[in-house]
Structure formats: C-alpha cells, structure tokens
Amino acid sequence: MKRLALLLTLFASFTAFAQGDAEAGKAKSATCAACHGADGNSVIPANPSLAGQHEKYLLKQLKEFKLGMTTGGEQGRNNAVMAGMVAALSEQDMADLAAYYASQTAKPGTTPESSIEIGRELYMAGDQERGIAACIACHGPRGNGTALSGFPKISGQSADYMKAQLMAFRDGQRNNDLNGMMRIVAQKLSDKEIEAISNYVGGLH
C-alpha cells in the first residue's frame, strides 16, 4: 500500500511538472512570432497557424522536431528551421509554448468555390474504390480534430501549408504520422486532389 501511495505521488508530481503554463509560454513565444504570428495566427501562407491547435499535438510536434534534430532526421520530424528553434528548448519550455498557443483563438479561413466539389467529396466520403479514408473520420466535420487521440485541427490552415504537408506525406519526406495513416492516404491522392483538399479545409469552421 505504501509503495502504491509513493507511485501515485510520483505520478502526480510528474504530471504537475509536465503541464504547460500558458503565461510562461507567451513570454517564451517572442521568437516564434516572426513565422507563426504574435497570437499564433500566421500571416505567412507557408507557415502553419498554431492558435487553437490541440496542446497535446503541439507538444508532440515540438518534441519530434527536436528528435529530428538530434538524430539527423532519422527519427521524428526533420525541418532545418524548426531544428534551430527547438535546439535550446527544455521539456517545460515546449509544454509552456504548447499551452500558450492552444489557448489562443484561431482566425477562420476561407474555401475557394473551385475547390468545394472535389475537396468536400474527399473530405466527407473519401474514395472507397481506391481505399482512401474520409478525412472527416479523424479530423471531424469542422476540421477540429480530436485532442485525446492526437489528430490535429486543420480548419483555417492555409492552403500552401496544407499542400506542402500532404505532398511531404505522399513523398515520404514526413513520416511522423500515427501508424502511417497520413502516408497511406496521401500516396493515393493526385496533385489535383491534394490541391482541392488543401483549399477546402481552410474554410471549415
């Protein structure tokens, strides 16, 4: 019984330490603002908006950027710019930044009319004949993802960023997806379909 109590105490202490502090994260986010915006809403299409993203997902990505840096890209997520940004971050720094950006309000995006037909069909229904799962299954009807399962919010992201990530999954340049799920889907998508989906999700809200 004493051993159980000690384990529970240690677990509680670890959980408390691992929790992010949004206010501390705000103070640490100054260097992130140039690429992701002061409040996490990026104005640079090539860079993702972080505002309102799930805390668990943000923390996972930061850790995997650092893993990519320390393993020379053999593990985690390999990105030269982010490798430099995460190099000096501690576990607590990453948790604080994740908590800060998760607490911010994401600005809604738009969907061009030309992308609605193809984008909506693939997002809502996929393509059973080609074994393409519907995006809605993991990312939800409004593109909000699910915090507990680690599926990210994609609503409001810029088409440029979404396209780059889908292409990276398709080409195997990004491989930190759960059970290879994104790679399996992306490998079956044409350039036209990737373009349509990338534009479509921006206006989901």
UniProtKB/TrEMBL annotation:
Q: Which residues form the Cytochrome c domain?
A: 20-105, 114-205
Supply the PROSITE patterns for this chain: CYTC
**Lineage: superkingdom:** Bacteria
Which annotated residues bind heme c 1? C32, C35, H36, M82
Signal peptide boundaries: 1-18
Name the Gene3D superfamilies for this protein.
Cytochrome c-like domain
State the Gene Ontology terms under molecular function.
electron transfer activity; heme binding; iron ion binding
Asked whether the UniProt record includes Transmembrane among its keywords, one would answer no
Q: Which UniProt keywords apply?
A: Electron transport, Heme, Iron, Metal-binding, Periplasm, Signal, Transport
**What does UniProt say on post-translational modification here?**
Binds 2 heme c groups covalently per subunit.
Where does this protein hold heme c 2? C135, C138, H139, M182
Write down the InterPro entries for this protein, in alphabetical order: Cyt_c-like_dom, Cyt_c-like_dom_sf, Cyt_C_IC, Cytochrome_c4-like, Cytochrome_c_Oxidase_Subunit
Protein's cellular compartments: Periplasm
Q: Name one GO cellular component term.
A: periplasmic space
Record PANTHER family: CBB3-TYPE CYTOCHROME C OXIDASE SUBUNIT FIXP, CYTOCHROME C4
Q: What is this protein called?
A: Cytochrome c4
